[in-house]
């Protein structure tokens, strides 16, 4: 908890925030870095971070739901795709398939298969 407290204190000090400004910043961004702007500006920032190895992925926290997330999906994702930074086709229908992970063997069905094969 102290590290989060120290981070928020540092942000308040660096920006000379009043208590109210700090509250608004924390409430809107939940304490995370915020990118605001056009889809192109947002993608410029994400691309810069990604290409310079400042991040290997991003958590998207829209300020409100569902329209904030819809805006990201409808405006930012297509720009990321246009730049070749976001997939346009998925390898499979499940997260496991898209990550290239094998389907785990279920011990109960595996045992049943062995029993059936023995019969």
Note down, in words, how this protein is organized:
- The protein is elongated and about 75 Å long.
- It has two domains: 1-34; 35-104, no CATH class.
- The chain has helices at residues 2-15, 19-29, 39-51, 67-82, 95-98, 107-118.
- 3% of the residues are buried.
- The chain contains six helices and no strands.
- The mean pLDDT is 86.
- 59% of the residues lie in helices and 0% in strands.
- It has 119 residues and is mainly alpha-helical.
Keywords, separated by commas or semicolons:
single chain, 119 residues, mainly alpha, 6 helices, 59% helix, elongated
Summarize, please.
The chain has 119 residues and is an all-alpha fold.
Low-confidence stretches: none
Radius of gyration: 22 Å
- Domain count: the total is 2
Counting DSSP E segments of at least 2 residues, the number of strands comes to 0
Overall residue-averaged pLDDT value: 86
SS content category: mainly alpha
Main sheet makeup: none
Helix/strand order, N-terminal first: HHHHHH
What is the straight-line distance between the termini?
60 Å
Inertia-based shape: elongated
Q: Strand percentage, roughly?
A: under 5%
Number of helices: 6
User: Which range best describes the helical content: under 10%, 10-25%, 25-40%, 40-55%, 55-70% or over 70%?
Assistant: 55-70%
